[in-house]
Design a protein that fits this description.
This protein has three domains: 101 residues, no CATH class; 95 residues, PmbA/TldD superfamily (PmbA/TldD fold), CATH 3.30.2290; 232 residues, no CATH class. The protein is globular. The protein has ten helices and 25 strands. Strand 11 and strand 12 form a beta hairpin. By secondary structure, the protein is α+β, with helices and mostly antiparallel strands. Helix 1 packs across helix 2. Belongs to the peptidase U62 family. GO terms for molecular function: metallopeptidase activity. Pfam families: PmbA_TldD_3rd (PF19289).
Amino acid sequence: MKVKMSEFLVEKKQSIKKLIQILNKDFKYVSVLGTDSYGKKYIVQKTGIDVSDSFWNERGFVVRVYNGIGYSEYSFNELDENNIDRLAENIKHRVNDQIDKLKKSYEITKYDVIKEEKMEDSFLGEIAIPKEKANSQYIIERLTKMKDKALAISDFIIEAKAIFHQVHVSKIFISNDKDLYQSYIWSEGYITILSRKDNITRVNYSSCSGLKGPELLDEVESKVKDTADIAVRLLDAEPVKPGEYEVVCSPDVSGIIAHEAFGHGVEMDMFVKNRAKAVEYIDKPVASKLVSMRDGAKSANHVSSYLFDDEGVIGTDTVIIENGILKRGLSDTLSAMRLGSKPTGNGKRFSFERKTYARMTNTFFSEGKDKIEDMIASIKKGYLLECPYSGMEDPKNWGIQCMLNYGLEIEDGKLTGKIVSPVVLTGYVPDLLKSISMVSENVQLEGGGACGKGYKELVKVSSGGPYIKAKVRLG
């Protein structure tokens, strides 16, 4: 079933065009991004049920104009067709006043006028189960069933939390040359299990996500038993002995490595600010020849897939690493103009009230030709790493650290049944990527949660890859 476009944005379209027409008298470039996103989050656990509005809810507009030197923006959430002239005059006054003040105190970076091709296009996502048919009662009943199923698996399980989060995103982008709109639904679901024995408490989780509706609940339910079983096994887990090991990384762990290593590290606004070492290694080897890596709204069909980014640039499929060679980065429009390159459709905003940054979309290692069984069989002493929690990377110095929930011990090419937890994976990015010696056939992506730019500016992204075999430091 096709997702419906926001009626609010459709109704405001002519008013936006009128606003642009008026502003064109004073500014050489004018564009408007309109957003209307709404969703709900459902949490069911032993202690109760919580239903709340999504963190991602927003409704408003942002105007971008060329101010004669660079670009100014003005955001607002009320658009009355009877007051368009007043709004235009207010925007003109605010922009000119801001530039006059800045010129007195700062040297302002100069940009050319954005040149766009004539384009009209649209994208409507599809879901299997209409959100109207899966009301709150249906979702809560499904989540309650998952919670009860998990609690019944073992007496050691003291809490189970089932979560479903769905957001309907609608956006329009209008300028003199572009008339674009898109509407899609993304969903994410989690099952989190808490186990306890004596004075030991452990937690395990699994997640699912995608450009899907309530049908995602089936995927979440399918993960309940395995998630609970690992939560119980973690009660007997031992800490990993620090050292260097050969490991097999699950697709989720591969994804967090890709995200941190050459996701943040190749966001090209960091090139402009001289905060990324990657700029020195374009067209140079940074990984094993087995490694290729991609990002883009068109690279995959997942939570960060769209027709156009928040600057009206059509999404792309960007090859970041090709057979071990670093090829290019990810750019927003203004970073690309500064660097003399073409924007890749990675300009994203936290909301219509915040500025655009170069951000990841769907970031992942490409598939290889190896079998997971052969990868495990090739390891004398090491671990199968699973369940990432978080990661950090220093784009300037290429250090990486990933926090993982657990590793499954491998000895003489076989899983021993022993489990270690928690696990910290660290290293120098090129060393880690150049150590990759096997890559499995199938790519899997996951897009639960959010990605921050530093400590803020959250956006939806997905990451993943195949299973990879590498040599890493664990602690």
